[in-house]
Amino acid sequence: MIHFCPNCWSEIRENVSVCPHCRYDLAHYNQLPYEDKLILALRHPIRENRMLAIQLLGDLRSRSAISVFRSIIREENDFYVIREVVRSLRKIGGKDSEELLSALRQHTSKLVRDLVVQK
Q1: pTM of the complete model beyond 0.85
Q2: Are 112 and 82 in contact (CB under 8 A)?
Q3: For 5, which DSSP code?
Q4: Are residues 77 and 67 in the same domain?
């Protein structure tokens, strides 16, 4: 099984306590609340893991995730990842989510624009 540092996402051995790449203390990670771990997972190198984190943050209605979702929307080209962000923003609701959804109506991808218009 491949293990990744939850801070820099470099591959690491299973039983290390400090990432040899970025010096992140993995014991600190184990103390983080679940929501914070999911927010870190939004940068995971495996797309399916990112998408699962997006879905779970939406299920939790995590307002803390909205700023990271904003970055994902700016940087991401994968329609399916953006689709999960849209679904989660709808679950989270509120002014910040609505602003991001509204901004997506101007996205360069017609698929994304059509997705945001659908309810």
Answers
A1: yes
A2: yes
A3: -
A4: yes
**Residue ranges of E strands in the chain:** 3-4, 11-12
**CA of residue 43 relative to chain centroid, distance:** 6
Same domain, 37 and 22: no
pLDDT tens string for the chain (119 positions)?
788 999 999 999 988 999 999 999 999 998 999 999 999 999 998 999 999 999 999 999 999 999 999 999 999 999 999 999 999 999 999 999 999 999 999 999 999 999 998 86
3-state secondary structure 11-71: EECCCCCECCCCCCEHHHHHHCCHHHHHHHHCCCCCHHHHHHHHHHHHHCCCHHHHHHHHH
Token duo for residue 70: 């904003």
d(CA 50, CA 85): 10
Domain that holds residue 10: 1-31
Nearest-angstrom CA–CA distance, 69 and 100? 9
